[in-house]
Design brief:
This protein is mainly α. The protein is 77% helix and 0% strand. The chain is elongated, with a radius of gyration of 20 Å.
């Protein structure tokens, strides 16, 4: 029993670290355009997304946690195996987060965690314990891995499309508008930053909750997959603290590395990204705030003047997204082997 308690404590600590690095990464993505367009001071932008990131997990359901926490079944394995799997997945996600932060590269914490769970799951319990969602897909619905994949890989496409459409719409509405309209956009910037922060907290905080709930189930603390109130509070607090310390290297890459960001781009990209995140959360699909914000911003640039976008930089970012999942799978499998070797 003592070893199970130790495993549970380690998992909780790892989730806190994961949520911190998640908030750290995503804060930069959420405020980069507001800072680059000089619409808001960095401290104000960070404060707004921090507050709304914390509020969100208490204001929405747990559909995303149910999706993330149940596509790898560890209900019938020993606490040692289940704990090793969860710790390995978290280790893969945190390692990737820290490495990409060090490089100033906007990457996806969600992709890292999903890849880590699949890689560790394949090694520890085999493909039979993973709900691939193929049967549900044939029946015309999304479940398991297919739902996770849809959320993580379709959402950037929607972000790009919405960013493009919103930008075109704003250009049409603002034709011939006087310069005083800037004041309206500055005010709307506060609303769009708040909405993006809320949508981030609503979706991303649930991933850490899901992992703790998995470990509580594997250790026999809970009879089924459930997320206690203390877990919601812990994950909301951890991701919020991470958000307070936004990664400035990533802000430089996203806010200044793709094209010259103006106020209209900032508002349009945040509205597009927040809308995609909110829709996905309502459907119980995990998203990557990093990917959605970046894709929405690229949609803005493509709508205004494609030649102004540094597509080589954008291509490098997108290529990194595709590298993210397989590398996290390998890391998850290796960490799982290491954990089972140490404790087996």
């Amino acid at each position: 029993m003592e070893s199970v308690t130790v495993l549970l404590v380690v998992v909780v600590i790892m989730v806190v670290l994961f949520d911190f690095t998640n908030g750290f990464h995503d804060a930069a993505d959420m405020v980069a355009t507001a800072i680059a367009s000089r619409a808001m001071r960095p401290a104000v932008a960070i404060a707004i997304v921090t507050v709304f990131t914390f509020i969100a997990p208490f204001s929405v359901g747990l559909a995303v946690a149910d999706t993330v926490g149940t596509f790898v079944d560890i209900s019938d394995v020993s606490p040692m195996v289940g704990g090793s799997l969860v710790i390995a997945a978290l280790g893969a996600a945190v390692s990737y987060n820290l490495a990409t932060w060090r490089l100033g590269f906007p990457s996806s914490s969600s992709n890292s965690l999903a890849g880590g769970l699949v890689g560790a799951g394949l090694y520890a319990v085999g493909a039979g314990h993973i709900n691939w969602g193929l049967a549900a897909l044939q029946a015309g619905s999304l479940d398991g891995v297919m739902k996770v994949v849809a959320g993580l890989f379709v959402s950037p496409l929607l972000g790009f499309a919405l960013g493009f459409v919103v930008m075109k719409l704003l250009f049409h509405l603002l034709q011939g508008a006087r310069s005083s309209v800037r004041r309206v956009f500055v005010a709307s910037q506060y609303l769009s930053v708040a909405w993006l922060g809320f949508s981030h907290g609503a979706n991303d905080a649930q991933k850490g909750m899901a992992v703790i709930a998995m470990m509580l189930l594997a250790s026999g603390v809970t009879p089924g997959f459930t997320v206690p109130t203390w877990v919601i509070l812990l994950c909301a607090s951890s991701i919020t603290v991470g958000t307070m310390f936004g990664g400035w290297k990533i802000i430089k890459t996203l806010g200044f590395g793709l094209f010259r960001v103006k106020l209209i781009h900032s508002v349009a990209s945040q509205v597009g990204a927040a809308a995609v995140n909110s829709l996905a959360t309502a459907l119980g699909a995990p998203t990557s705030t990093t990917q959605v914000v970046t894709a929405s911003l690229l949609g803005n640039g493509a709508a205004e003047k494609p030649s102004h976008v540094r597509w080589r930089t954008a291509a490098g970012i997108v290529a990194g997204w595709w590298f993210n999942v397989p590398s996290s799978m390998l890391l998850g499998a290796w960490y799982c082997w290491l954990c089972l070797k140490l404790w087996g």
